[in-house]
Amino acid sequence: MTTIQAATYPIHFEEKGYNELSNLIANNNYSSLFVLVDTNTLEHCYPRFIQLLGTEKPIEVIQIEAGEIHKNIETCVGVWNVMTELGADRKSLLITLGGGVITDLGGFVASTFKRGIDFVNIPTTLLSMVDASVGGKTGVDLGVLKNQVGVFANPELIVIDPEYLHTVTPREIRSGSAEIIKYGMTHDIRLFNEIKDNPNVNIVDLIHRSIEIKNEVVLEDPKEKGVRKVLNWGHTIGHAVESYFLESEHKEALTHGEAIAIGMICEAYISHKELGFSKEKVNDIKKNLQQIFGIASITENDYAPILEYLIHDKKNVGGIINFVLLNDYEDFKLNCTTSQGIIIESLKFYCQ
């Protein structure tokens, strides 16, 4: 797979990525190297990483607990303290080796430690390969409110190594495929068709195109003032549902992709009501996404708390809930609004 050039950094694939990372380390005379991992990636991914990384420099490994629940400022404080104790300075390099929690949190830790040190992302899940690691967004959650604290900061480079996908569960692969479906609906319907028409599709074949789409959007709008908002398709309701299920004692937590699939179904319904998006396509989206991701239990008792989480969405301005909606596949409209009544209708539609 060919290298993709982002605004200030390259996105390399497979073994070329490790060669370029080794060159980066050799050419920049870093004072110290740190690798941020979680309990899963230390066991399953670090051995491959250290085998392919060509450097004689000593590496300090910093481990955090796995899971979205640990993507918070308290974990950052722990990592900052460990780096300080190990003598990190402004010429240190932090390499993140993990999924979206690691790349989001690690990028934030690096971009704020001593007002910013270099970092490199090596995503190990499908979700982080096609979305979280690319685009310069870093940050952590505030309680269960997702990505409320963070900064835009670009890595020095990104290494995409699909071999790491052998270390994650089929559920996590499905979760990442939701972001690929998002790119399909908004930019290249072939991606959605490939997934829905072929249950045995080789997902690796769709990674490069997905990253291309995200990179093209980010190049046009680095800080989400305009067209980058399209990357939030499915995420307005999806994030609210994800946060609610994470917080509720009576719900089993959803993966990010499972929640975004719910969001895409609901927001497709809202697109039909507000923009005339084809009802046939809305029904097709619902049928296919529920086949892929299953059906979460959402009842009338859940509507009010989900609406409450929607109010806290970081994309809102002046208390107004903003949506990305579809006129048609590959034809979207930004900064849309709707009524609470239609939002509730969309949740009912999901459950029918």
From TrEMBL:
Its cofactor is Zn(2+); NAD(+); Co(2+). Pfam families: DHQ_synthase, DHQS_C. GO terms for molecular function: 3-dehydroquinate synthase activity; metal ion binding; nucleotide binding. Catalyzes the conversion of 3-deoxy-D-arabino-heptulosonate 7-phosphate (DAHP) to dehydroquinate (DHQ). It is an enzyme of class 4 (lyase). This is 3-dehydroquinate synthase. Residues 62-174 form the 3-dehydroquinate synthase N-terminal domain. Keywords: Cobalt, Lyase, Metal-binding, NAD, Nucleotide-binding, Zinc. GO terms for cellular component: cytoplasm. Its EC number is 4.2.3.4. Transmembrane segments: none annotated. Gene3D superfamilies: 3.40.50.1970, Dehydroquinate synthase-like - alpha domain. InterPro entries: Dehydroquinate_synthase, DHQ_synth_AroB, DHQ_synth_fam, DHQS/DOIS_N, DHQS_C. One of its GO terms (biological process) is aromatic amino acid family biosynthetic process. Residues 176-316 form the 3-dehydroquinate synthase C-terminal domain. It comes from Tenacibaculum holothuriorum. The lineage of its organism: Bacteria, Pseudomonadati, Bacteroidota, Flavobacteriia, Flavobacteriales.
